[in-house]
Amino acid sequence: MYTTQLQAGQGLVDETRTLLAIWEPMIGTQELYQAALASGHFTNVTARRLRNIVAECFAPRYLVDDMQPARTLKVIANQVSLGELKLLFLYYTCRANEILADFVRDVYWQRYAGGYSEVSKEDAERFVRRGLDEGKMGKRWSDSTIRRVSGYLLGCCGDYGLLSPAKSGKRQMQTLNITPNVAGTIAHELHFRGVGDTSLSLRDEWSWLGLDEHEVLGRLKELSARGWFIIQSAAGFTQISWKFKSMEEFCDAVAR
């Protein structure tokens, strides 16, 4: 179901990095809000705005699934590049916001595959209106809401490095670098969520990064060459011998 939750905050890259630094394992939303309020790092926003950032943006994205996203990102945030971190933020934000996941997959990457170099506000608005026609919203959105949400989608993609800043209502597509750190984190995250080896390359999550099944298998083989696991794939069947026994072990390896 599509929601307007992105109106509470789009990419929030700097804010998320600061909150990850403040967050401690197993601290919930209210405790994190209080810690952030007392930290002195958010003096440029009101207490109400900070509460919205924590409760409506950070928590749904990173304090879910036993807080595994936050635990993962806290360990590796200072060990990977900003570009890598943005793509992992994109991954978790798409998981929390179906409308963004579908927009990235069905508009951004479809246009990229079609040889286009930009995404316009009109493209985003057509996508939102199509979602309305397909019944993906709980109720009919007003034209002003459609325009705002369209802007949020583009803004979020811009924050995470998929699009350039807006110019004449259009944003240029950016080249993404899906590094071993990014692919490895997602592969292990899916594995420890219970995704089977053969199903791993088929997961829709990879489409958020513009990768199809064959490209994912190629990335997995690259990770195998790094010694992170051993993969065997033939005739549509994949078997992986996983080296790390938990997400924490994998994150520690990345951090080293």
Summarize the topology.
Elements lengths: L12 H10 L6 H11 L7 H16 L5 H9 L5 H15 L1 H16 L4 E3 H13 L9 H17 L10 E3 L7 H13 L4 H4 L12 H13 L3 E6 L2 E6 L4 H9 L1
Antiparallel strand pairs: 1-2, 3-4
Helix pairs in contact: 2-3, 4-12, 5-6, 5-9, 7-8, 9-11, 9-12
Structure description:
The protein is mostly helical and 256 residues long. The protein folds into three domains: 5-74, no CATH class; 94-172; 180-255. Helix content is 57%, strand content 7%. The chain contains twelve helices and four strands. It has helices spanning 13-22, 29-39, 47-62, 68-76, 82-96, 98-113, 121-133, 143-159, 180-192, 197-200, 213-225, 247-255, and strands at 118-120, 170-172, 229-234, 237-242. Strands 1-2 form a two-stranded antiparallel sheet. A hairpin with a 2-residue loop joins strand 3 and strand 4 (237-242). Helix 5 (82-96) crosses helix 6 and helix 5 runs parallel beside helix 9. The radius of gyration is 19 Å and the shape is globular.
Give me some keywords for this one.
about 260 residues; mainly alpha; 3 domains; two-stranded antiparallel sheet; 12 helices; globular
Number of helices: 12
How many domains, as an integer?
A: 3
Q: Radius of gyration, rounded?
A: 19 Å
* Order of helical and strand elements: HHHHHHEHHEHHHEEH
Biggest sheet, spatial arrangement of strands: 1-2
**Strand-residue proportion:** 5-15%
Helix content: 55-70%
Report mean pLDDT, rounded to a whole number.
95
> What distance separates the N and C termini?
40 Å
Major beta sheet summary: 2 strands, antiparallel
Shape: globular
